[in-house]
Write a structure and sequence with these properties.
Length: 109
C-alpha cells in the first residue's frame, strides 16, 4: 500500500514536469519584460519626436493589450478560487479561439 501511495505522489508531483513548466514561465516572463521595455522606449521616442512608424504603434498596442491581460489575470487570481477560475477561463477561451494570455505566454506554432 505504501508503494501505491508513493507512485501516486510521484505521478502528481512530477518534478521534471514542474521544473520544465517553471523554466518555461521564466523564459516567457523575461520575453514579456523585454517587450515592455521596448514599448517604453518607443513611447519615449514618440514623446520626444512626435512621430512613430506603424510598426512601432502596433508593438505598443500589442504590449498595452498584454499589460491589460496580465492585470486582469492577476485580479482574478487574487479572488478566492481565482486560480481555478483563471484556468477554466483560459481553457474555455482556447476552445473559442480567444486568447487570455499575453503574447509571450501563447503557444507559438
Amino acid at each position: 500500500m505504501e508503494k501505491n501511495i508513493e507512485k501516486f505522489v510521484n505521478k502528481i508531483l512530477n518534478k521534471e514536469k514542474i521544473k520544465n513548466g517553471f523554466l518555461e514561465f521564466l523564459k516567457n516572463s523575461k520575453e514579456e519584460a523585454h517587450e515592455y521595455k521596448e514599448a517604453a522606449q518607443i513611447l519615449n521616442n514618440y514623446a520626444k519626436t512626435g512621430n512613430a512608424s506603424k510598426e512601432d504603434i502596433k508593438k505598443v498596442r500589442t504590449q498595452l493589450i498584454d499589460t491589460l491581460k496580465i492585470s486582469s489575470s492577476l485580479a482574478l487570481f487574487i479572488l478566492p478560487g481565482g486560480s481555478l477560475l483563471l484556468a477554466m477561463l483560459i481553457t474555455i477561451g482556447n476552445k473559442f479561439d480567444i486568447n487570455f494570455l499575453p503574447s509571450s505566454f501563447s503557444k507559438k506554432s
